[in-house]
Amino acid sequence: MLQLDDKSVSQMIADLELDLKNIPAQAMQQAAEILRLSFEQNFIDGGRWNADFPITPMSGGSMKWKPLAESTKQTYAALGKNTERTLQRTAGGLAAGIEVYVGTDNTILIRSNKDYSAAQQFGVTNTVRVTAKSRK
Description:
Elements: H1 7-45, H2 70-78, H3 94-97, E1 98-102, E2 108-112, H4 115-122
Antiparallel strand pairs: 1-2
């Protein structure tokens, strides 16, 4: 009588089925990484608009970011603050607060812990007056 041991074949099929189930999660992880790198490059470049190419969600916006006004740079310098563009500051700036990750339902989530991000996303409906006394 001939005996056939198919345990290794059964294991290979089970492994293959598991790999196939993980493909959507792996693809979403790769897409999230592409978005994260795109955001990072956008901050490094100060916007990545290029008139030679059409504007798309991945093109970095419709224009380069404007530099800080000289008066703002002078004020920041006098206060001992960083004079880089506000959006490009890495230590505690907007770029440092952006997180991109894959949710449990294979969605890509982008979030920030910065109030400025909410103002950019949802708009601002009121003006906050900052007086010299309240500045730090």
